[in-house]
Amino acid sequence: MLKWILKHKFFLLWLLLTAAIGGYYYQLFFMSEDKTALLPGLTTDGHHQIEMQCSACHTEEEKENVFTSSGVPSSACISCHGEALAKFSDSHPVRKFKNPENIIFTSEIDALKCVTCHVEHNQKVTAPMGVTVPQDFCAHCHEVTLENLDSHKDLSYDTCHTAGCHNYHDNTDLAPSFLLKHYGEPKLLPEFKERPLSSDQPCPDPWASAESCASCHSDHMHEFQKGKHGMRLAFDNLSPMRPELARAPMKKSAAHLNMDCTSCHQPEKPQGFAAYNACIQCHDDTHTRNYTDSKHFTLWDASKGVSGVSCATCHMPKVENEGGGYHVSHDNSANLKPNEKMLRSVCTDCHGLQFSMNALADPELIEANFSRNPTVAHPGIEWSANAAIKRGNKDAKKIRDYLQSLSKENENNKEN
Ligand code: HEC
Ligand code: HEC
Ligand code: HEC
Ligand code: HEC
Ligand code: HEC
Ligand code: HEC
Ligand code: HEC
Ligand code: HEC
Ligand code: HEC
Q: Ligand 5 atom 8: the closest Cα is on which residue?
């Protein structure tokens, strides 16, 4: 018997291994909740929280191609992102490239498909914001622009969207007409914009269970599920997000906290808890820790949370309701990337556009949580103004004066 075993040891070993591996995969595919081992690589930061929900992207529609490349239809992406892309009028929507005039552009870059620029599970090629095409891809279609514009002649091809000047999708806050409209604004506007909430009634049931909040506040829950805080709650079989599952730096003490309505809304806590103290239960990165050094915090703290700028002012801004008035946006990702989205939804309520753009183009200042003046000068307004002067714009003199004051201001800031 022992002899027989020794003689067939390789065969037996193979049999054993096959059974083990087979059993392992069987268990994974059909029984286990954890499908991590089936993933071909690390999922992007945008989607890591829902990576176990393979069918969210690998849909029935593409059943034959499931788990092969080109197996993810754009319709899957659009089912989650379409509404937001449409809201700010995407500069490069699919329909633009279906237009016969522009079809020629798609020969090299198939802009009709989301996966041309956003593949998944491939960390090697993934740049910030889940972009998986080389940084200079804009030039494939816009080489002529780069050559024809004086201001753009000397720019390298990869700066179009990495320098905070243009985006592929959302250019609302970078359109030349918008920039020109706001030239000459001071650092602080003489009057801050107010955003009154459409309802200021107290909650009749603030001690309800987290699950039941949504029975009365379904709109807030719906919005919550679109951002990184609530995205897992869009799926019945996923637990709420917890700091221990995060990639971003979190406090160890918060590892097991569930992210739901009651993480921030705790009726026994003082006013303003939800807007700052709640956040620092979990978040523990440099930007978060530096917030208390900023004038924004000093003002907020001194007013007991009535004015000034809290974490929530920037990350959960008040947004307009369809029927007028405002509510607090519970999609904490909506205005974050690219960060110019924050210009209109937050900063320009109080600051001039140039100051705000300078601040958002300064990564070190963001890390310092805006606790000093910016040291970066965003060239966008200046270029738009120069172009307007060249066109013989009737306000040319005013614009020129402004440009002079600007360069002086920048010098002063650098000295300080
Ligand atoms: C957020 C959307 C999303 C989720 C969730 C997702 N995938 Fe993918 N997956 C993609 C995209 C996009 C591609 C690239 C498709 C292409 O290149 O056309 C891809 C490609 C793949 C590939 C082919 C890789 C290759 O190199 O060809 C496999 C295998 C795969 N996914 C497995 C999975 C498994 C298993 C899960 C669940 C555990 C999963 N995916 C969850 C979006 C997703
Ligand atoms: C089930 C809904 C869902 C599907 C399907 C989905 N996404 Fe997302 N996606 C999200 C959420 C939620 C986030 C995180 C919040 C945010 O950044 O908007 C996100 C983030 C992103 C980001 C930003 C990443 C970052 O690091 O800032 C990109 C780009 C993106 N998705 C593209 C796609 C593409 C392309 C597809 C299709 C292959 C897709 N998504 C499919 C829900 C989805
Ligand atoms: C030709 C390349 C390209 C194609 C095609 C493309 N994207 Fe993007 N996408 C980008 C780039 C570049 C960014 C980085 C931010 C920017 O420049 O707007 C981005 C950013 C994003 C973001 C995060 C930033 C934001 O503004 O919300 C989402 C979400 C997104 N893309 C979804 C999609 C979806 C859905 C599709 C398909 C309908 C798609 N993208 C097709 C290049 C592309
Ligand atoms: C597949 C081809 C293609 C690629 C790649 C591409 N574009 Fe475009 N882009 C176009 C076309 C076509 C138009 C429309 C031109 C027109 O209407 O005159 C356009 C228009 C624009 C506009 C005008 C904005 C608007 O809202 O009308 C800007 C800005 C722009 N692109 C920037 C970029 C940047 C930045 C990138 C890279 C991140 C990029 N484009 C990549 C084809 C492309
Ligand atoms: C029985 C329905 C109901 C339930 C359950 C409920 N709410 Fe409310 N809530 C309301 C109404 C009505 C208002 C008044 C404002 C309005 O009309 O939207 C309100 C107001 C609020 C406000 C703003 C005013 C304030 O008191 O701060 C918050 C925050 C709030 N609810 C959070 C919650 C949370 C969190 C839960 C779950 C723990 C919850 N609510 C459960 C009905 C409900
Ligand atoms: C990350 C923290 C956070 C979470 C989680 C959160 N909220 Fe809020 N919520 C706030 C902040 C900040 C305000 C602004 C008022 C304040 O400071 O208390 C607010 C205000 C509200 C208001 C009143 C203002 C308005 O928009 O009408 C309601 C209602 C509300 N939240 C419901 C909910 C519900 C329902 C959930 C769960 C789906 C939830 N919140 C989860 C932070 C949060
Ligand atoms: C219960 C813990 C918890 C609380 C409370 C909390 N967060 Fe978060 N937050 C998280 C987790 C977990 C993530 C996801 C990180 C990841 O996926 O790596 C996150 C993500 C974020 C992001 C990144 C969004 C993106 O799209 O990349 C921002 C911004 C943010 N939180 C701001 C806040 C603010 C502001 C508050 C208070 C109003 C707050 N958070 C309260 C746990 C928390
Ligand atoms: C004046 C506005 C402002 C204030 C106040 C503010 N933030 Fe931010 N926060 C930003 C900007 C801008 C970014 C960077 C977005 C980018 O460029 O990617 C950011 C980034 C973040 C991120 C990282 C998101 C990511 O995935 O890269 C987290 C988490 C965050 N903030 C949490 C907080 C918390 C918690 C507080 C309060 C202690 C706070 N922020 C206060 C504007 C602000
Ligand atoms: C509610 C009004 C308000 C909003 C919204 C706001 N700020 Fe501020 N900010 C202020 C005030 C007031 C100061 C203090 C100015 C002073 O004392 O000179 C300040 C100071 C600053 C400073 C520091 C300047 C210094 O002298 O130390 C920076 C940088 C800054 N804000 C950037 C931003 C950015 C970027 C945004 C948007 C993401 C923003 N702020 C949103 C009101 C606001």
A: 203
State which ligand 4 atom lies nearest to the alpha carbon of 108: 1
> What distance separates the 2 farthest-apart alpha carbons in the chain?
102
Q: ∠ at Cα 115 (226, 173), nearest 5°?
A: 55
CB of 231 sitting under 6 A from ligand 7? no
The tokens for 18 are: 């096959």
Do residues 197 and 405 lie in contact, with contact meaning Cβ atoms separated by under 8 Å? no
Q: End of a domain among 307, 330, 350? A: 350
| Residues 303-346: tens digit of each pLDDT | 999 899 999 999 999 999 988 899 999 999 999 999 999 999 99
Stretches where the chain sits below pLDDT 70 are: 1-34, 61-70, 394-397, 399-400, 402-403, 406-407, 409-416
198, 220, 221, 336: which to mutate for ligand 6, most atoms within 8 A of CB? 220
Q: Tokens standing for 172?
A: 């609302």
- Identify the nearest ligand to the CA of 369 by its number: 8
| Residues 153 and 217 placed together within one structural domain of the fold | no
C-alpha pair distances (Å), 263 with each of 26, 280, 303, 353: 38, 11, 24, 34
Q: Total structural domains in the chain?
A: 2
**Strand extents, DSSP E, 253-315:** none
Q: What is the pTM of this model?
A: 0.93
In a domain, 96, yes or no: yes
